[in-house]
Design brief:
This protein has one domain: 3-Layer(aba) Sandwich (oxygen-dependent coproporphyrinogen oxidase), CATH 3.40.1500. It has nine helices and nine strands. By secondary structure, the protein is of the alpha+beta class. It is 39% helix and 26% strand. Helix 1 packs parallel to helix 5. Involved in the heme biosynthesis. Catalyzes the aerobic oxidative decarboxylation of propionate groups of rings A and B of coproporphyrinogen-III to yield the vinyl groups in protoporphyrinogen-IX. Its main location: cytoplasm.
């Protein structure tokens, strides 16, 4: 079987995945995701290509949600993409993927992030270098063990057919990646994360990408359905806004995808689609010991084996 990449097949899958996720979340919310298709022609900057951003704001369940598809290319890899592979620095490149972030209104419902992506780098008279990346992670404001266990179970099941060692490896990768070094705390309860992955042949790598992408609805929608009608007050909303500040800090300071998008001259509105709508910061604040807010830190923002 050929190990040559098939970008057209990957693109077709990603477009279908975006539609399926938007349809499922829109049905749950009761409001429709807006569509913003964009294009950047060759010669307009360092990258060319386009994408489709699907956005829902001020929904019934989702305060802000975005599911973005992009397919872009350039003549020379930006520093963030070649950092781990100096041998391909300066090559022409092509990237495509679906990335999403959901920020629910109810503080008892967790924020979720997922992305799946495919990358190729080419040079004359050389074999193309390709890899897949992706994963999903969960960021609760008020922790529930059954939610974290369910999310991790789906994550484990999505990669289990491709190797027994992948879930523990990708879980650790997620724990280490979504970690705010300047705060010395995890962003949430994790999930799975992988990048620069081509350890299997193309067919198997592509199949694993589809399994991860297809798993998001099963991992996340039951949590929304379970928590969206939980009563809450101003205290819970205030804590949610405070914790959302950590989400902003990670995405702007540490996230490799954000850096890649900005360094490569990407579309700012799409890159920053993941930002939460209402955020607060406080100076040197900690929750009172024994409170539900404190429990997030003591029981959930720690490295745990959930399944």
């Amino acid at each position: 079987m050929s190990n040559s990449p098939r970008p057209d097949d990957v693109k077709a899958y990603l477009l279908g995945l975006q539609t399926r996720i938007v349809d499922a979340l829109g049905q749950l919310d009761g409001k429709t995701f807006l569509t913003d298709a964009w294009e950047r022609p060759a010669g307009a900057g360092p990258i060319a290509g386009g994408g489709i951003s699907r956005i829902l704001e001020e929904g019934n369940v989702l305060e802000r949600g975005g599911v973005g598809f992009s397919h872009v290319s350039g003549s020379s890899l930006p520093p963030s993409a070649a950092a781990n592979r100096p041998d391909i620095a300066g090559r022409a490149w092509e990237a495509m993927g679906v990335s999403l972030v959901m920020h629910p209104r109810n503080p008892y419902t967790p924020t979720a992030h997922m992305n799946v992506r495919f990358f190729t780098a080419t040079a004359p008279d050389k074999e193309p270098v390709w890899w897949f990346g992706g994963g999903m992670d969960l960021t609760p404001y008020y922790g529930f063990e059954e939610d974290a266990k369910h999310f991790h179970q789906v994550c484990r099941d999505s990669v289990a057919p491709f190797g027994e060692n992948l879930y523990p490896r990708f879980k650790t990768w997620c724990d280490e990646y979504f970690y705010l070094k300047h705060r010395k705390e995890p962003r949430g309860v994790g999930g799975i994360f992988y990048d620069d992955f081509n350890a299997l042949d193309f067919e198997q790598c592509f199949a694993m990408m589809r399994s991860v992408g297809d798993g998001f609805i099963a991992a996340y929608l039951p949590l929304l359905e379970r928590r969206k009608d939980t009563p809450y007050g101003e205290r819970e909303r205030d804590f949610q806004a405070y914790r959302r500040g950590r989400y902003v800090e990670f995405n702007l300071v540490l996230d490799r995808g954000t850096h890649f998008g900005l360094q490569s001259g990407g579309r700012t509105e799409s890159i920053l689609m993941s930002m939460p709508p209402v955020v607060k910061w406080r100076y040197d604040w900690k929750p009172e010991a024994g409170t539900p807010e404190d429990k997030l830190y003591t029981d959930f923002l720690v490295h745990r084996d959930w399944v």
